Amino acid sequence: MMPEQNVTIIGAGLAGSLLSIYLARRGFSVTVFEARGDMRKERVEAGRSINLALSDRGIAALREVGMDAFMLSEAVPMLGRMIHSATGEQKLLPYSGREGEYINSVSRSGLNIALMNEAEKYPNVAFIFGERCTDFDTATGEATFASGRTFRGDTVIATDGAGSPVRQAMQRQIRGFEFSSRFLDHGYKELHIPPGPDSSFLLEKNALHIWPRHRFMMIALPNHDGSFTCTLFLAHKSEPLAPLRPEEEWPQAGVEGEEGGLFEWSFDELTDEASVLDFFTREFPDAVPMMPTLVEDFFANPTGQLGTIKCWPWNAGGKALLLGDSAHAIVPFYGQGMNCAFEDVRVLDTLIENAGTPDWEAIFIEYGQLRKVNADAIADLAEENFYEMRDRVADPVFQRKRELETRLEQNYPDYFSKYSMVTFREDMPYSEAHRRGNAQDELLMTLCSSVDDVSELDLDEVAESLRLLEC
Ligand SMILES: Cc1cc2nc3c(=O)[nH]c(=O)nc-3n(C[C@H](O)[C@H](O)[C@H](O)COP(=O)(O)OP(=O)(O)OC[C@H]3O[C@@H](n4cnc5c(N)ncnc54)[C@H](O)[C@@H]3O)c2cc1C
Question: Residue with the nearest Cα to atom 30 of ligand 1?
């Protein structure tokens, strides 16, 4: 048990709520301030995706606090990507060739509520809702709230998300604080496929559905009630489309410009019912009949921004630490933002345990040294995967590569694809998965572009070449 200390957490989202459980178990007195109301009592705007892919790194962190079995019982397993072609054919690309390696679709609010309920079982945790932090003093450790209230614990851990006011205060007050934000030209919008008769699933239940269309894509994740939450990723503004190069097999999906030429579809072009219906029936003809509220949803739901935030240092002496999206917001294309934030919590907890006494500055410095390289790696992986999901999953060479990876995973216990290393190997740091995965990808893409069918390749030779990459 740690000496009596009060830890303040700013933000009762996914990371903050899980962190409060970990800290409560260590005997700290934990006060969690949350800007929104209590989502268990009132409808609060979630603001982000309705459901999320939970995978091994996140599950490992939930397991430590006994929450994994419950959350998995509430989740829908997704065994692979179901690719929907422009003409409506479907093809399942499994996430792994190994049994038991899949990802899970969970409800964001369901998970957040379960974590808060668990945290409140500890008498040393208090949640204070409707308190928006507006400023933080890195010298005194005092947080100021919109209500005028101030609060000072022994230390503050800021899990207040991508727009973190604590991070902004650190940026103003810490000399040399490094900050960068990079936004994609693409935004996202959530849409809905309701359940069929008797809560049946209108699409394959155990898959993450993707409609890849080169410059844009739609995905759909299953929900427990038989519905799917779809997310359209599309450019904010139209750019002229470059003419096709001879080697490109892609049809150019676009909209005619007024003075000729083809422009890519964008949110800017979808301004009324007719343009929305035209776009969806041309590009996602198999999905439209399952989306009876498509037009209403399209105009009711906000268009979200997608960006990567990097900053350094993550700590203000021992007075504050940034954790989760406040330190490293990433684009969602590896389904790892929450999983990474949960891993952050697990790593921090291990360091607290090892330290024995809460020397916050020493713990935070070591934490940053361990995690920064991995947060940077998953940020880069997530951006790279955007282009893979959007452009390459429908490419025959890429599909052959996935097939080869599946066969390798079925036959060689020591082989893990890049996707598997990131998603299913909680024992492997993201930075290592990134380095090894990119080297493997290069080799496998070269091999797959040299054959029409992966059965033409000698599997033993491929496995040996992959091993040699590690030498
Ligand atoms: C479209 C989309 C899809 C995604 N899909 C996945 C996925 O499949 N898998 C995955 O692992 N990750 C996914 N993510 C990423 C994931 O949502 C985030 O990484 C995760 O929510 C980070 O958790 P967090 O607790 O750090 O931040 P948040 O979840 O943003 O929580 C921050 C909390 O702080 C509160 N807060 C904010 N400001 C203040 C303030 N001033 N004072 C007090 N409280 C404040 C907020 O209200 C909120 O409760 C996705 C993200 C997006 C945008």
Answer: 161
